[in-house]
Design brief:
One of its GO terms (molecular function) is methyltransferase activity. By secondary structure, the protein is of the alpha/beta class. It has a domain of about 180 residues: 3-Layer(aba) Sandwich (Rossmann fold). Strands 3-2-1-4-5-7-6 form a 7-stranded mixed sheet. Helix 4 links the parallel strand 2 and strand 3.
Amino acid sequence: MVDTEELARGYTLANNTQRDAGNFLIEKLEITPGMRVLDVGCGPGDLTAQIAEIVGENGSVVGIDPSKERIAIAIDERIKPNLSFQVGRAEDLSQFSSGSFDAIFVNSTLHWVEDQPAALMEFGRVLKSGGRLGISGGSGDFVAAHERIKADVLSRDPYRMYQEQSPPKFLKKVELEDLLDRAMFSKRDFIRRKIIKSAEDADAMINWLDTSSSGKTYGGIPLELRPKAREEMKHEWDKLTTKDGIQMEMEVLVTVAIKN
Protein backbone atom coordinates (compact mmCIF):
# COMPACT_ATOMS: atom_id res chain seq x y z
CA MET A 1 0.00 0.00 0.00
CA VAL A 2 1.09 3.58 -0.62
CA ASP A 3 -1.55 5.13 1.59
CA THR A 4 -1.14 8.36 3.54
CA GLU A 5 -3.18 10.01 6.27
CA GLU A 6 -4.16 12.72 3.78
CA LEU A 7 -5.52 10.15 1.30
CA ALA A 8 -7.25 8.24 4.08
CA ARG A 9 -9.02 11.34 5.37
CA GLY A 10 -9.81 12.44 1.83
CA TYR A 11 -11.58 9.15 1.27
CA THR A 12 -14.07 9.91 4.04
CA LEU A 13 -15.05 13.06 2.14
CA ALA A 14 -15.15 11.66 -1.39
CA ASN A 15 -16.48 8.12 -1.08
CA ASN A 16 -20.15 8.68 -1.89
CA THR A 17 -19.98 6.12 -4.70
CA GLN A 18 -18.58 3.41 -2.43
CA ARG A 19 -20.95 4.37 0.39
CA ASP A 20 -24.00 4.07 -1.88
CA ALA A 21 -22.78 0.69 -3.14
CA GLY A 22 -22.20 -0.42 0.44
CA ASN A 23 -25.70 0.59 1.55
CA PHE A 24 -27.16 -1.45 -1.31
CA LEU A 25 -25.05 -4.44 -0.25
CA ILE A 26 -26.05 -4.09 3.41
CA GLU A 27 -29.69 -4.31 2.34
CA LYS A 28 -29.13 -7.37 0.15
CA LEU A 29 -27.01 -9.12 2.80
CA GLU A 30 -29.96 -8.93 5.20
CA ILE A 31 -27.90 -8.16 8.30
CA THR A 32 -30.04 -8.40 11.44
CA PRO A 33 -29.67 -7.69 15.18
CA GLY A 34 -27.44 -10.11 17.06
CA MET A 35 -25.23 -11.05 14.12
CA ARG A 36 -21.43 -11.22 14.26
CA VAL A 37 -20.14 -9.53 11.07
CA LEU A 38 -16.69 -9.13 9.50
CA ASP A 39 -16.10 -6.09 7.27
CA VAL A 40 -13.17 -6.83 4.95
CA GLY A 41 -11.56 -3.68 3.54
CA CYS A 42 -13.37 -1.44 5.98
CA GLY A 43 -11.30 1.69 5.31
CA PRO A 44 -11.99 4.43 7.88
CA GLY A 45 -14.98 2.48 9.12
CA ASP A 46 -18.03 4.59 8.28
CA LEU A 47 -20.03 1.68 6.85
CA THR A 48 -18.64 -0.65 9.53
CA ALA A 49 -20.12 1.64 12.18
CA GLN A 50 -23.42 1.60 10.32
CA ILE A 51 -23.45 -2.21 10.39
CA ALA A 52 -22.69 -2.10 14.14
CA GLU A 53 -25.83 -0.01 14.64
CA ILE A 54 -27.86 -2.69 12.85
CA VAL A 55 -26.51 -5.69 14.80
CA GLY A 56 -26.98 -3.82 18.08
CA GLU A 57 -25.58 -4.53 21.51
CA ASN A 58 -26.17 -8.27 21.21
CA GLY A 59 -24.14 -8.46 17.99
CA SER A 60 -20.61 -7.43 17.08
CA VAL A 61 -18.66 -6.18 14.08
CA VAL A 62 -14.95 -6.37 13.28
CA GLY A 63 -13.42 -4.23 10.54
CA ILE A 64 -10.09 -5.06 8.92
CA ASP A 65 -8.06 -3.17 6.34
CA PRO A 66 -4.44 -3.40 5.13
CA SER A 67 -4.04 0.39 5.50
CA LYS A 68 -2.80 1.32 8.96
CA GLU A 69 -3.70 4.93 8.18
CA ARG A 70 -7.37 4.10 7.60
CA ILE A 71 -7.54 1.78 10.59
CA ALA A 72 -6.04 4.53 12.76
CA ILE A 73 -8.90 6.86 11.78
CA ALA A 74 -11.47 4.13 12.44
CA ILE A 75 -10.03 3.37 15.89
CA ASP A 76 -9.80 7.06 16.77
CA GLU A 77 -13.30 8.01 15.65
CA ARG A 78 -15.62 4.98 15.55
CA ILE A 79 -14.85 2.46 18.31
CA LYS A 80 -17.92 1.24 20.25
CA PRO A 81 -18.50 -1.67 22.66
CA ASN A 82 -19.69 -3.87 19.78
CA LEU A 83 -17.26 -2.53 17.17
CA SER A 84 -13.52 -3.10 16.77
CA PHE A 85 -10.88 -2.57 14.08
CA GLN A 86 -7.53 -4.07 13.21
CA VAL A 87 -5.00 -4.06 10.40
CA GLY A 88 -5.51 -7.18 8.34
CA ARG A 89 -5.64 -8.71 4.86
CA ALA A 90 -8.41 -10.68 3.21
CA GLU A 91 -6.02 -13.49 2.26
CA ASP A 92 -5.05 -14.18 5.87
CA LEU A 93 -7.80 -14.25 8.48
CA SER A 94 -5.84 -16.52 10.82
CA GLN A 95 -6.63 -14.23 13.77
CA PHE A 96 -10.24 -15.48 13.54
CA SER A 97 -11.49 -18.94 14.43
CA SER A 98 -13.26 -21.10 11.88
CA GLY A 99 -17.02 -20.61 11.81
CA SER A 100 -16.91 -17.43 13.89
CA PHE A 101 -19.00 -15.04 11.74
CA ASP A 102 -22.61 -14.93 10.58
CA ALA A 103 -21.86 -12.60 7.67
CA ILE A 104 -18.93 -11.10 5.78
CA PHE A 105 -19.22 -7.72 4.09
CA VAL A 106 -16.78 -6.98 1.22
CA ASN A 107 -17.52 -3.63 -0.41
CA SER A 108 -15.34 -1.99 -3.10
CA THR A 109 -12.44 -4.15 -1.95
CA LEU A 110 -12.01 -7.49 -3.71
CA HIS A 111 -10.34 -6.00 -6.81
CA TRP A 112 -7.45 -4.83 -4.59
CA VAL A 113 -6.90 -8.24 -3.01
CA GLU A 114 -3.70 -9.80 -4.35
CA ASP A 115 -4.67 -13.45 -3.87
CA GLN A 116 -8.40 -13.56 -4.53
CA PRO A 117 -8.73 -17.38 -4.45
CA ALA A 118 -7.07 -17.48 -1.02
CA ALA A 119 -9.39 -14.71 0.21
CA LEU A 120 -12.51 -16.60 -0.86
CA MET A 121 -11.26 -19.73 0.88
CA GLU A 122 -10.68 -17.72 4.06
CA PHE A 123 -14.16 -16.21 3.83
CA GLY A 124 -15.59 -19.71 3.66
CA ARG A 125 -13.49 -20.87 6.61
CA VAL A 126 -14.46 -18.12 9.06
CA LEU A 127 -18.18 -18.14 8.15
CA LYS A 128 -20.58 -20.38 10.01
CA SER A 129 -22.52 -22.96 8.01
CA GLY A 130 -25.36 -21.01 6.39
CA GLY A 131 -23.43 -17.78 6.83
CA ARG A 132 -23.76 -15.05 4.22
CA LEU A 133 -21.03 -13.48 2.09
CA GLY A 134 -21.75 -10.16 0.39
CA ILE A 135 -19.40 -8.79 -2.26
CA SER A 136 -19.85 -5.57 -4.22
CA GLY A 137 -17.35 -4.11 -6.68
CA GLY A 138 -16.56 -3.18 -10.23
CA SER A 139 -17.42 -5.84 -12.80
CA GLY A 140 -14.68 -7.32 -14.95
CA ASP A 141 -17.27 -7.67 -17.71
CA PHE A 142 -17.34 -3.88 -18.14
CA VAL A 143 -14.43 -1.50 -18.73
CA ALA A 144 -15.08 1.95 -17.26
CA ALA A 145 -13.51 5.19 -18.48
CA HIS A 146 -11.12 5.44 -15.54
CA GLU A 147 -9.63 2.04 -16.44
CA ARG A 148 -9.20 3.02 -20.10
CA ILE A 149 -7.59 6.36 -19.24
CA LYS A 150 -5.19 4.83 -16.73
CA ALA A 151 -4.16 2.09 -19.19
CA ASP A 152 -3.71 4.62 -22.00
CA VAL A 153 -1.56 7.08 -20.06
CA LEU A 154 0.57 4.46 -18.32
CA SER A 155 1.31 2.77 -21.66
CA ARG A 156 3.12 5.91 -22.82
CA ASP A 157 6.79 6.77 -22.43
CA PRO A 158 8.32 7.03 -19.89
CA TYR A 159 5.62 5.48 -17.67
CA ARG A 160 5.53 2.11 -19.41
CA MET A 161 8.99 1.37 -18.05
CA TYR A 162 7.53 0.95 -14.55
CA GLN A 163 5.49 -2.16 -13.89
CA GLU A 164 2.59 -1.81 -11.49
CA GLN A 165 2.81 -4.01 -8.42
CA SER A 166 -0.48 -5.64 -7.45
CA PRO A 167 -2.76 -3.89 -9.98
CA PRO A 168 -6.50 -4.08 -9.40
CA LYS A 169 -8.21 -7.19 -10.75
CA PHE A 170 -11.92 -6.75 -11.48
CA LEU A 171 -13.44 -10.22 -11.65
CA LYS A 172 -15.82 -11.27 -14.37
CA LYS A 173 -18.99 -13.00 -13.21
CA VAL A 174 -17.79 -16.38 -14.47
CA GLU A 175 -14.47 -15.96 -12.63
CA LEU A 176 -16.22 -15.13 -9.37
CA GLU A 177 -18.54 -18.09 -9.81
CA ASP A 178 -15.51 -20.37 -10.08
CA LEU A 179 -13.95 -18.97 -6.89
CA LEU A 180 -17.25 -19.38 -5.03
CA ASP A 181 -17.51 -22.98 -6.18
CA ARG A 182 -14.02 -23.75 -4.91
CA ALA A 183 -14.76 -22.08 -1.56
CA MET A 184 -17.97 -24.16 -1.11
CA PHE A 185 -20.54 -21.42 -1.74
CA SER A 186 -23.06 -23.29 -3.88
CA LYS A 187 -25.97 -20.89 -3.36
CA ARG A 188 -25.52 -17.37 -4.69
CA ASP A 189 -27.35 -14.49 -6.32
CA PHE A 190 -25.82 -11.93 -8.66
CA ILE A 191 -27.04 -8.45 -9.49
CA ARG A 192 -25.49 -6.25 -12.17
CA ARG A 193 -25.98 -2.56 -11.39
CA LYS A 194 -25.26 0.25 -13.81
CA ILE A 195 -24.36 3.39 -11.89
CA ILE A 196 -23.09 6.85 -12.77
CA LYS A 197 -20.08 8.36 -11.02
CA SER A 198 -20.41 12.14 -11.20
CA ALA A 199 -17.55 14.58 -10.74
CA GLU A 200 -17.42 18.33 -11.13
CA ASP A 201 -14.31 18.25 -13.31
CA ALA A 202 -11.15 16.30 -14.12
CA ASP A 203 -9.39 17.25 -10.88
CA ALA A 204 -12.34 16.07 -8.80
CA MET A 205 -12.44 12.74 -10.65
CA ILE A 206 -8.70 12.16 -10.20
CA ASN A 207 -8.90 13.11 -6.52
CA TRP A 208 -11.65 10.50 -6.07
CA LEU A 209 -9.54 7.89 -7.83
CA ASP A 210 -6.50 8.78 -5.67
CA THR A 211 -8.33 8.48 -2.36
CA SER A 212 -10.23 5.36 -3.44
CA SER A 213 -7.08 3.53 -4.51
CA SER A 214 -4.75 4.63 -1.70
CA GLY A 215 -2.66 6.45 -4.31
CA LYS A 216 -2.51 3.66 -6.90
CA THR A 217 -3.96 5.81 -9.68
CA TYR A 218 -0.45 6.07 -11.15
CA GLY A 219 0.47 2.40 -11.12
CA GLY A 220 4.15 1.78 -10.41
CA ILE A 221 5.62 5.03 -11.69
CA PRO A 222 7.94 6.93 -9.32
CA LEU A 223 6.70 9.88 -7.29
CA GLU A 224 8.62 12.45 -9.33
CA LEU A 225 6.76 11.44 -12.53
CA ARG A 226 3.29 11.45 -11.02
CA PRO A 227 2.54 15.17 -11.46
CA LYS A 228 3.25 14.84 -15.19
CA ALA A 229 1.14 11.69 -15.43
CA ARG A 230 -1.68 13.43 -13.58
CA GLU A 231 -1.65 16.25 -16.12
CA GLU A 232 -1.87 13.76 -18.98
CA MET A 233 -4.75 11.98 -17.25
CA LYS A 234 -6.42 15.32 -16.62
CA HIS A 235 -6.17 16.10 -20.34
CA GLU A 236 -8.02 12.86 -21.14
CA TRP A 237 -10.71 13.53 -18.54
CA ASP A 238 -11.17 17.05 -19.91
CA LYS A 239 -12.27 15.44 -23.17
CA LEU A 240 -15.14 13.78 -21.29
CA THR A 241 -16.19 16.90 -19.38
CA THR A 242 -19.44 18.63 -20.32
CA LYS A 243 -21.32 21.57 -18.87
CA ASP A 244 -22.66 19.09 -16.29
CA GLY A 245 -19.18 17.87 -15.36
CA ILE A 246 -18.15 14.25 -15.84
CA GLN A 247 -20.74 11.48 -15.84
CA MET A 248 -18.89 8.15 -15.87
CA GLU A 249 -20.87 4.97 -16.39
CA MET A 250 -19.80 2.00 -14.26
CA GLU A 251 -21.07 -1.52 -13.75
CA VAL A 252 -21.12 -2.97 -10.24
CA LEU A 253 -21.38 -6.71 -9.66
CA VAL A 254 -23.21 -7.48 -6.41
CA THR A 255 -23.01 -11.01 -5.02
CA VAL A 256 -24.67 -12.63 -2.03
CA ALA A 257 -23.55 -16.21 -1.42
CA ILE A 258 -24.47 -18.74 1.29
CA LYS A 259 -21.87 -21.06 2.79
CA ASN A 260 -22.74 -24.75 2.49
